[in-house]
Amino acid sequence: MALMTANEYIESLRKLNTRVYMFGEKIDNWVDHPMIRPSINCVAMTYALAQDPQYAELMTVKSSLTGHTVNRFTHLHQSTEDLINKVKMQRLLGQKTASCFQRCVGMDAFNAVYSSTYEIDEKHGTHYHENFKKFLTFVQDNDLTVDGAMTDPKGDRSKSPSQQADPDMYVHVVERRADGIVVCGAKCHQTGSINSHWHIFMPTIAMGEADKDWAVSFACPTDAEGMYMIYGRQSCDTRKLEEGADIDVGNAKFGGQEALVVLDHVFIPNEYIFLNGEYEFAGMIVERFAGYHRQSYGGCKVGVGDVVIGAAALAAEYNGVEKASAVKDKLIEMTHLNETLYCCGIACSSQGAPTKAGNYQIDLLLANVCKQNVTRFPYEIVRLAEDIAGGLMVTMPSQKDFNSDTVVGRNGETIGEICNKFFAAREGVSTEDRQRILRFLENMCLGAAAVGYRTESLHGAGSPQAQRIMIARQGNIQGKKQFAKDIAGIV
Ligand code: SF4
Ligand code: FE
C-alpha cells in the first residue's frame, strides 16, 4: 500500500473504535475535539512531509523487510546514516510543529523490540522475532502510527512489580491460554496513544524471576476490547475551547498529547506477543528503547528550540530592541545551547553500531549524555526567551479585549482601541503580530506546549536520574583511572 496522506491518516482514525475519556466523560467524536485535534494535526504532519518531494529523502526510506518505500517513522535503522537522518527528520518536524509529534515512540519501540526479540529467540528458542517482523511488515505496508507504551504507574517505587499490593501497578499477564494471553494494568502519560492505530507494550524496568508475569511485551490495536484512555490535561488547555481564541491559544494548529492507557483484561493472540516471561530480557528492551528515545530528543527538542529562538528574536524585533547587544548575546546563547543538543543527537547516532539482529543502535553513553543535557538546556533557553519577551507575555489582556467594542474611555474609546493603543508594537508592526508572538512564547514557555518543551524534556524518555545511572554504568571510570595511573607512573 502507498504512503498515507495527512488526510487519509486523520480519516483512518475515525474508523477506529478508540475509547477516549476527558473531564469525566466519554468523547465520541474525539478526532474533531478542539483540545485533541491539534495533537492529531501534529502526527498528520509526519504523513504530510513524507508526501513532499523536498523532504522525500529524509522522510522516506526503503524498507529492510520488504524493499518498499516506507515512512522513516516505521523504519529499522540500517546504518549510522539512517540514525543521523532520524535525528534530522525529528528536528524538521519540531520546526514545522513546535510540538511533540508523537510518532517517534513507535519508531523507537520498533528498533528496540526488533533487536531484543532476536536475542530472546536465540536464547530461548521462542518465535518472537518472527512475530515482530510480521507485525512490522503490516505496519509499514499500511503506514500506521504505533504508540510505544512503556511507563507503568509503578505504585510503591521501593517494591518490584511482584511485590506491589496491587498487581496492576505494572502491566501483567493474568491468564495464559493456548491461543494467547490476557493482560491487565496501565501505562501512564502515553505520548500519542489516542492518535495511534496500534500500540506496542513493553516492560518499564529490569525484572527478576518473581516478576515473570510482568515481563511481557506485545502489540495490540488501539481499539482492542478492554482498552481505553483517559486524556491528560495540559496547562491552559481549555483556552482551546474558547470561541475565537486562536491568538490566546498560542499555537492553535499543533500540540502534543498524553493519556493514561488502561488494559482491562485485554486478549493478545500469540502472534502479537514479543516477550512472555523471559524476565532477564525486560531490562534489555527498556535500555534499548530508552537509548533510542534519548537520541530522539537531540532532534525533536532542537527543532522546537529553533522555533522558540525565532519567536524570541521576533519579539525583540517587534519591541525595537533587536539591535541591542544584550539581546543579540542572549540569542547567541540560546543558539549555542540548542546546537549543543543537536551535536549530542548527531554524535550518538554517528557512533552507532549494528545489533545482533542487524539494525543499528545508537551509542548508549552518548545518547544518555544527550538526554541529560536536554533535561537542562531547554529550561535555560526558555528563561532567556522570557527575558527577551518581557512581562507582557503573561500580563496581556485577552483576545476578546483586543476585539471588544465596549466603550470605556471619556471620548468613546472602546476596550479594543485602548488595548491596541497601549500595546502597540514598533512602527510598521501590527499590535496583533506582537500579541501573536507573545502568546506563542507563553504557550511554549508555560502553556500547553510547555508540556512538550519543558517538563517532557525533564521527564520524557526517563527522568534525569535514569540517565545518570546509565552514564555511571557506561562511563568507564576504571579505564579513566588507568589513564591517570599510566601517566602518573602508578603501578
Ligand atoms: Fe518524538 Fe520528541 Fe515527542 Fe518523543 S518527545 S515522541 S521524540 S517529538
Ligand atoms: Fe517524549
Characterize the structure shown.
It is a single chain. With 491 residues, the protein is α+β, with helices and mostly antiparallel strands. It is 49% helix and 14% strand. It contains 18 helices and 14 strands. The chain has a six-stranded mixed β-sheet with strand order 2-1-10-11-7-6, with no helix packed on it. Strand 3 and strand 4 (69-71) form a beta hairpin. Helix 5 runs antiparallel to helix 6, helix 8 packs parallel to helix 10 and helix 8 packs antiparallel against helix 15. Residues 100, 191, 456, 460-461 line the site of fe (iii) ion (FE).
Topology:
Elements (H helix, E strand, L loop, with lengths): L5 H9 L5 E3 L2 E2 L10 H15 L4 H4 E3 L6 E3 L8 H18 L6 H21 L3 H15 L3 E4 L22 E6 L2 E12 L6 E4 L14 E6 L5 E5 L14 H4 L8 E12 L3 E4 L5 H38 L5 H26 L2 E2 L5 E2 L2 H11 L2 H13 L2 H4 L3 H5 L11 H8 L8 H16 L3 H10 L4 H11 L2 H12 L3
The chain binds iron/sulfur cluster and fe (iii) ion.
